Amino acid sequence: MQIAENKVVTLNYTLKDGSGKVIDESNDGSFVYLHGAQNIIPGLEDALAGRSAGYTADVSVPPEQAYGVRDPSRIQSASREMFPADTEIEPGMQFHAKGPEGQAIVIMVVSVEGDNVTIDGNHPLAGVHLNFDVEIIEVRDATAEEVEHGHVHGPDGHHHA
Ligand code: ZN
């Protein structure tokens, strides 16, 4: 069975950045996604379309087809008052916030100088060239319910709370 819209794909992968450092991996058959539902980055989804179980490949995905390029305007100054008063704010800390379109984003503290906190709202993988070692384990038809929800359900049916 070939990968196409509304197929559920089980995928093993190792994800490395441009320098070969492993960022993420799943090699036990536990990663599944619904093809065509924007569950995974576009560059990887495109590379898998039309393939079937047993296919292996090295897929190279530029930032534009992954998490986007880094946007300097997302590096901003914030007041210390915007952060929890009882927490020591240090570079590298991450907080959840709302982006310009109301979407959930993670902001990272870049530096702290007195009352002024510099934050970076870029995705941690923005600007990163991604390299995937992939192996397709299984391809099956999605159920009507999975298509409706836009994501995969577990073997026993519905898994969300
Ligand atoms: Zn669901």
Distinct small-molecule ligands in the complex = zinc ion
Shape: elongated
Derived from helix and strand composition plus strand pairing, the structural class reads mainly beta
Largest sheet: 5 strands, antiparallel
**What is the CATH C level class of the largest domain, in words?**
Alpha Beta
Mean pLDDT across every amino acid position:
92
Query: What count of helical segments does DSSP give?
Result: 2
Classify the beta-strand content into a percent band: 35-45%
Low-confidence stretches: none
CATH architectural designation of the largest domain: Roll
Elements, N to C (H/E): EEEHEEEEEEH
Protein architecture, described:
The protein is elongated. Strand 6 (94-98) and strand 7 (104-113) form a beta hairpin. It folds into two domains: 7-67 and 126-149, Roll (Chitinase A, domain 3), CATH 3.10.50.40; 72-120, Thrombin, subunit H, CATH 2.40.10.330. The protein contains two helices and nine strands; from the N terminus they run βββαββββββα. The longest helix has 7 residues, at 42-48. Strands 1, 2, 3, 4 and 9 form a five-stranded antiparallel beta sheet that branches. Strands 5-8-7-6 form a four-stranded antiparallel beta sheet, with no helix packed on it. With 161 residues, it is mainly β. It has helices spanning 42-48, 144-149; strands at 7-16, 22-26, 32-34, 56-61, 75-79, 94-98, 104-113, 116-120, 130-141. The two termini are 31 Å apart. The structure holds zinc ion. Residues 149, 151, 153, 158, 160 line the site of zinc ion (ZN).
